[in-house]
Amino acid sequence: MGDIMNDVKVVFEPYGKRVKASVGELVFSIAEKAGVAIRSECGGRGVCGKCKVIILDQNAISKLSDIEMNHLTSSEIISGYRLACQTRVLKNVVVAVPPESIMQPPKLMILGFERDVKLSPVVRKLHLLLPEPTLSDIRPDFERLLESAQERFKDFGGLDIDYDVLKMLPEILRRSHWDITLVMWDRRIIGVEPGDTSDRIFGLALDIGTSKIVGHLVDLKSGRTIAVASIENPQAVYGEDIITRITHASKGDANLKELQRLAVDGINKVLHEVCENSGVDPFNVYEVMIVGNTAMHHFFFGIQPKYVAQSPYVPALRKAVSVKAKDLGVDAYPCGIVTSLPIVAGFVGADAVADVIATGMHELSENSILIDIGTNTEVFVGNRDYLLCCSCASGPAFEGAHIKHGMRAVTGAIEKVHIDNNFDVKYETIGGVKPLGVCGSAVIDVIAEMFKHGIIDANGRINSQIESPRIRASNEGLEFVIAWKDETATGREITVTQKDIREFQLAKAAIYSACSILMKKRGLSEEKIDFLFIAGAFGNYINPENAKVIGLIPDVTSEKIRFVGNTAVAGAKMALISKEMRNAAEQLVEKIRYHELAADPNFNQEFINALNIPHRFIGRFPSIRKHLKSFR
What we know:
Blueprint: E1 7-13, E2 17-22, H1 27-34, E3 52-54, H2 66-71, H3 74-78, E4 81-83, E5 93-96, E6 123-129, H4 141-152, E7 160-161, H5 163-175, E8 179-185, E9 188-194, E10 202-208, E11 212-219, E12 224-232, H6 242-249, H7 253-278, E13 285-292, H8 294-301, E14 322-324, H9 325-328, E15 337-340, H10 350-359, E16 368-372, E17 377-383, E18 386-392, E19 413-419, E20 425-429, E21 437-438, H11 440-452, E22 471-474, E23 477-483, E24 494-497, H12 498-521, E25 531-535, H13 544-549, E26 561-565, H14 567-577, H15 579-591, E27 593-594, H16 603-610, H17 622-631
Parallel strand pairs: 1-5, 7-9, 10-13, 13-15, 16-25, 18-27, 19-21, 25-26
Antiparallel strand pairs: 1-2, 3-4, 6-8, 8-9, 10-11, 11-12, 14-15, 16-17, 17-18, 19-20, 22-23, 23-24
Helix pairs in contact: 7-8, 10-14, 12-16, 14-15
């Protein structure tokens, strides 16, 4: 127990939350302890500058750091703004969290394209009435059970039984008067329940994303989703991007265990929410099928992920993992199974495999591209005969990180933007409220609209010769005003800066160059692409034409573009209800050819060429070149 003389009281407004803290403790850490979620894309490392708080009593806190001087404007400093991750408390203090620093639940894509599959779940139930033992029938309990099961169904021979279930078997059989229901996972008995419970059999399909966790509660008798829930990934307190979290986990086993605990806590929260909303007992959830990128997969299973982030980017394993729920702390049926789909390689994880399964591109004779856009973007190119894939670090710009007024897709974020010929701006916000900032889809719109109207050139430079009050100089160079201060919830203008445009050019160049390299390796031009699947929570909200204008995606005709939503959770559900789909996933990872972009001699040049808007070689975007004159 700490020395009470060294304790201070910290009050967080507008929440009214009071918490004790130690002298010298960081405001960011105190906020986490108080349950106050403050934005931080960098996990409190002083990189993103998003964790701004207002503290009027500057004598109660540490002196302004050099990092804060770099992130805060002079007017903000005068107004008492500080960075929570850099400020230490010295005395009792009141900390105000401004609206733009409050972490809010994101606008999530919880549904995805899902193909019809034959219902054949790995989890099954069988109701049995066993003959009681007598002096003339002294078969052991387990053999009695097996023989009765095989009499009903010939394929039930040779079943194994979970050790924990075996220990309870004699008591359960006798207390239930030999009227029981077997619960089986594949060829293994994972439960023996009194009476007939065969109508209560459920599974949970989960997408453990970097920013969110989405769960579908599924009735395994019908294959129907009966409840859906989603939450922000609790690991976000340690950074909103994968690399930040991996760095944290690599510093020691305690850190890795903490990230695993947060993942499990998040899954349990989703599990309890879907069960409460549907009236299902979590005890009747017998399998949890999880997908996620390789880092999320490793975090959840408690596997050190640091080597995935270090050359040559090797994961711990590729095959599917199956672990008892109780061993992971998941609040489903204790002897139920938590299963993952297999991993391809590098950061191309189980979620990407689920994407392919859900879209069915591995079964198509036509040529397809699948792009799952996120902080780490996965790209697949090919058809049923040959599939190539890669991953690229597209960065957190799509989540609003490293953008001056960027934010995630939450209430108050500008999500759509249009600029007219007079440079006037119309925008839409999530929730229809006053804007707090811009999310990724809006930045794509802004850059595309600025390019169409000649506000920026092909190099992304803002044209200083244009006479408009929306184009102005700032401490960070030129910027374009999207919303004036009297329109916003913060009382400050929302802008896109020259630096923001550069950040997005880096992100879009990574994605386009990944597509370009795989297409070239397959000998495919844009004209030979029959389908372009855009997956992921972010992808579903972008304007496809504007995405082509900035050179984010290949210039295929709009009718070939399919927005397929959260195919990761859709693929997880398909594997949950279909043994055939699960087997297909195992076969698929053997068939897919992974291409490591870091080792590709052409990647750097492809990347440099793709930095231009839409591209250094405008001929790759004929639809954009054709309309450039009409744009301006």
